[in-house]
Amino acid sequence: MDPNTRTTPVRVVTLNPGGLLKKDMFVDAVVHTGMRSHMLVVPVAAVLRDDKNEPIVYVQQAVGRFAQRSVAIAGQQDGLVAITSGLQEGETVVSDGSLFLQFANTIK
Question: Which end of the chain is less congested by CB atoms within 10 angstroms, N or C?
Fold first, then answer.
């Protein structure tokens, strides 16, 4: 990936009925990967990084009590991050304001 243009050259082999595609043309493309059903996702804002650059989230334990939780992430799409381990369905995850919780934990 070119960090200046945020682009990646890709070679695509496809049929070209009608000859609409020409050599060295640029296109906007969407790459679809294998779809998984029943995937646990959280908002991008909920995922932070610890001092070892590992992904973490804050989970509500009780009213006004939160715990830091290490998670494994799989990918990001449409403002959501897929969580592969570290969370259970139904747990309440902090998204907006999670950065303040992380900051409060560092000054203790």
Answer: C
HEC string of 40-92? CEEEHHHCEECCCCCEEEEEEEECCEEEEEECEEEEEECCEEEEEECCCCCCC
Q: Pull the structure tokens for residue 85.
A: 């381990």
Q: Taking the CB of residue 57, how many other CB atoms lie within 10 A of it? A: 26
- Angle made by CA atoms 21, 11, 17, in degrees to the nearest 5: 25
Give pTM, 2 decimals.
Answer: 0.64
CA nearest 6: which of 33, 21, 28? 28
Please identify which residue in the block is written with the tokens 């509500």: 60
